[in-house]
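Dig into what follows:
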Amino acid sequence: MDNVKISVIIPVYNAEKYLKQCLNSITKQTLRDIEIICINDGSTDNSLKILREYAEKDERFKIINQKNAGAGSARNVGLDNATGEYVSFIDADDWIKHKLYKKLYSIAEKENLDIIMFKMINYDHEKDKLYETNYYNLSELKKWFDGSLFSEKITKNKIFNMSVSPGGKFYKRSLIESINARYPEGIIFEDTPFYMETYLNAKRCKIINEYLYFRRRSEKSVTTQFDKHYEDIIYMSNILIDLFKKHDKYKSYKKGLFNFKIAFIRKKYNDIFKNREKLFYLIKKFFENE
């Protein structure tokens, strides 16, 4: 496909229940010049069958199969195969408004933007209701809801309170490739390092003060995932520190990084149901080595 404006990257793992709603929201976009890169991450349900059905009808689909390696790995494979001017990430159980890409592409091209952020609204599928949170409302950045441009240099004291979710961002691909930004693989919390690295290097950012992305949530599944991967909180913190050092930002952000680590680790420790004693030991060793 020539003249690809946007590469839409979708990690897919056992998402058959919600996958069609996600894909329909993409195929019905008013902007047609997109490629839809679906990474089947070792699904054992009918996800791959559904993807192939869509690909047979729409040449914009690219289906890539891999053994289960997690969302970070799947997104990286998507980036390695992306050809669009811009990149959008969508989770396979979420969905977007039909006008999203036409709106974002037009604004990004007109204003030469590196990153566009927009609001995400949560959907509790167990209670069948939408709900807002300050975090995904981008309330920390409400000063820029008027459409003015910003960057890391003028939002320094807010960077650790900003939403890191990839679904609420629209990236210029040349920014990602210029710094070879990729997701850490094999851990959860992979969103944080990728977002921080891209944002630290972006020069022109903007917020669209609208809900354009629907984020499906199940607190039970989130808690279960963290119970299984509790040690990843330490790995992510170390990756984040190395990242800030790599981009020569550690000294100027040292205090903020330390406060973020403490707050994030404490929150996740309070959230965990199992393995508390093991996590406490890892946290203790982590701060002893600081």
Notes: The chain has ten helices and nine strands. The two ends are 50 Å apart (CA to CA).
